[in-house]
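input
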Amino acid sequence: MTVIIKTPEEIEKMRELGRLAAEALDYIGPFVKPGITTNEIDRLIHDYHINVQGGYPAPLHYGNPPYPKSCCTSVNHVICHGIPNDKPLKEGDILNIDVTIKKDGFHGDSSRMFAVGKISPQAQRLIDVTHESMMAGIAAVKPGATLGDIGHACQTVAENAGYSVVQEFCGHGIGRSFHEAPQVLHYGRKGQGMKLAPGMIFTIEPMINQGKRHLRILADGWTVVTKDRSLSAQWEHEVLVTDTGCEILTVSPATGKP
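output
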């Protein structure tokens, strides 16, 4: 697969789609409280994408087996691709909500961590370090840098904090397709891998485990959990490589913060 360099017109559409993904996460945040189910969260996201934003939830029926819901909700030791269900969230849970909206032939993809009520200091530290890991990866993005530079930056932050980086799942190019080249690993060596060029758009979305990096995939074919049942966290932004560095396309419109 070759990397698609986006035209100025495509970049404008991707800015819009990135904003819509971030708006959906802004919208859902106040609903994340003890007692709500992830199925209720999924229904709210589904309706918001369609009825408010005029788009469509790209995860719905995606892949093989077809993904059955409109967003991913990964609770506690679930690394990624958690399928919404009827189990109520409880005080102290941590939750990643991953949304992807499709509209006018383009995609916007982002995820955030949410605390359910009051969480432990250890869980908060994992959330904070994972965000720091993502931001370190983003800070490495500029023309002439390499994919290895991004991975190395993410890995260094996580491992210096005593955590491990999931290696089986990665960031990805995005545009007219949900998943495009390149694959963006969250571990690696400086100077290795593809060189970055202006007009590339891809996600950086490190999955960081409190314990060991090893995982297993449940029988549903989607849900990925830590093998040792330790907590896992993930954040995801979409970035555009610019002439001088990068632009985050999925900054929260509500707070202005990445």
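quick obs: The first helix runs from residue 8 to 28.
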